[in-house]
Amino acid sequence: MSECYAATEGPVGGCGWRSVSGGRLVLQSASKLNIFLEVLGRREDGYHELDTVMVRTRFCDTLTLIPDFSGAVRLRFSDSTPASLRNAVPLDGRNLILRAAEQLRGLGASGCGAEIILHKCIPPESGLGGGSGNAAAALLGCRQIWNLSVSDAQLHEMAAGLGSDINFLLSGARAAICRGRGEQIQPLQFSGSLFFVAVRPGRGNSTPEVFRRTSAGTELRTSAHVARCLTDGRTDLLESCIFNRLTDAAARMNAEMADLQHRFQHATGRPAFMSGSGSTVFVVCRSAREAREVQRTAERKLRVVAWLLEV
Ligand code: C5P
């Protein structure tokens, strides 16, 4: 398994450490896109065996961690977190940041406390792994501010216990084939950048519900083609290999998403794909410039916020 995203002080491009000053640690908490997702079957533990390719995007939340000796971990939103996101993300024991911090405190750091400020940008129930990224950042951040001698392997074990997408975002890989529940990471090396434009309907999708309504394909597809597009530098072929087995079930559950996907395709003249269990749908662009144009077109024609997601 790959190492946890290494600590690098100073500004960095993707997620990871941003700065440490006065004992205050500021971390970027990245999002992911699934550019391939096949469901291989249902497992005895109720989860589904996956073959998926995730890429880490620069669309991030920010976590600020301030250690203290209160013995408690307090979580609050930044003042500039929009009300729509405050209302959609719980700050109680359901929040993965608090659960991640608790896991670490359980490993002999019970006296450690912190104030954690979450600047939320990534909407929940979007298939972008916002909560998973927050958990990964909390694991890395709390280990750092509490100066714990917890290995990367132990962090990965905790991550897998907390959710299926956390290991990928913890690994720091730009792209990976993820198997098992999604927690087994095989990083993919590739050079250059990828550009996507994504939109989301008002309503999110419930991940358990989408999985429950999905049946494994009769003819299983493989992540090998998408992986090869990345590693062979043939990202021009990427669009033709993108696939997500969860799309049909999600579209049946969320008519607004299905309609947005259809209108997004029509407005941009490109196929639109769903990430994870949705409800974000995205199109592929060849350059930052093209992506900015597509973003403007989508916002003008669809009257929604469109994100430019760079990998
Ligand atoms: O692991 P995570 O908490 O992200 O999963 C949320 C839910 O999505 C699970 O409780 C399960 O119902 C479903 N799931 C699944 N198979 C996976 C990942 C998630 O069935 N590989």
How would you describe what is shown here?
The chain is of the alpha+beta class and 311 residues long. It has two domains: 3-187, Ribosomal Protein S5, domain 2; 195-310, GHMP kinase, C-terminal domain (Alpha-Beta Plaits), CATH 3.30.70. It has helices at 83-88, 96-105, 130-145, 152-162, 166-171, 207-212, 224-231, 238-241, 247-253, 255-268, 288-302; strands at residues 16-21, 24-42, 48-68, 73-77, 113-119, 175-180, 184-187, 195-199, 243-244, 273-274, 281-285, 307-310. The strands form two sheets. Strands 1, 2, 3, 4, 5, 6, 7 and 9 form an eight-stranded mixed beta sheet that branches. A hairpin with a 3-residue loop joins strand 6 and strand 7 (184-187). The chain is globular. The chain starts with 15 loop residues before the first strand and ends with a strand. The model is unreliable at 1-18 (pLDDT under 50). The structure holds cytidine-5'-monophosphate. Cytidine-5'-monophosphate binds at residues 47-48, 50, 163-165, 181-182, 207-208, 211.
